[in-house]
Design a protein that fits this description.
single chain, about 220 residues, alpha/beta, five-stranded parallel sheet, about 25% helix, about 40% strand
């Protein structure tokens, strides 16, 4: 066990809380919706995450896609389409199972007051996108581009998704069709770090000023 893992396990043992699985729903072959009954209320902000224990010494951060203040149920959208401790943990969970967690943490990305909000992300950041969608002002325009090799559902928890394989010309065509106002649009880019860096660079080259980026994995 690494020093970081030891420190995290120690903190989780002292500060962690226990939630219970309420329901797991497969939205497609890789995207799973996990509903957790939390023991305490959250002061939920966009793009926060819970640190969940997925193994004896393994922990993963998952964005809170939605939180119901009345029932204290947090919904996580997790990409389980790859081999990893988080995916294996998720696929063996059943209703009623305990989940040790800490948080929420994060929350740097918040909806701005711009007329248009645009999210570009991969499957690992769908929960990130959804939290912005649910916390936006109803009158704000909201546009999402999911990038990856495998198509995702065209709608997730009420949020429409446009899919792309990430080729630059496809991203440019999608942006052209939106006809966004240059000085009244905020972009959010999240997920695979090389994709985030490349997309942020492209948007900056196109003249967009409000670009908020978050890299999740390499």
């Amino acid at each position: 066990m690494s020093l970081k893992e030891k420190a995290t396990a120690f903190l989780m043992g002292r500060m962690g809380k226990t939630a219970h699985v309420r329901q797991i729903t497969a939205l497609d072959h890789r995207l799973l919706q996990l509903e957790l009954q939390l023991p305490d209320p959250l002061s939920w902000r966009s793009c926060q995450h819970l640190k969940c224990q997925v193994g004896a010494t393994a922990f993963r951060d998952y964005s809170i896609a939605h939180y119901n203040t009345n029932t204290q149920v947090a919904t996580l959208l997790i990409d389980a389409g790859h081999i990893g401790k988080g995916s294996q943990w998720l696929r063996q969970l059943a209703p009623g199972d305990p989940v040790l967690y800490a948080g929420p943490g994060g929350g740097m990305h918040q909806p701005t007051s711009a007329a248009q909000l645009v999210c570009i992300a991969d499957a690992s950041a769908i929960g990130h996108m959804l939290s912005l969608f649910h916390r936006r002002h109803p009158e704000q325009g909201f546009h999402t581009l999911a990038i990856g090799e495998d198509p995702l559902p065209k709608q997730v928890m009420g949020m429409p998704l446009h899919f792309s394989d990430g080729q630059e010309k496809d991203v440019l065509n999608w942006l052209d069709q939106l006809q966004l106002p240059l000085h009244d649009t905020t972009f959010y880019v999240a997920g695979y770090i090389p994709m985030v860096v490349q997309t942020r660079k492209l948007l900056k080259q196109l003249g967009w000023k409000q670009v908020k980026a978050a890299g999740f994995w390499e």
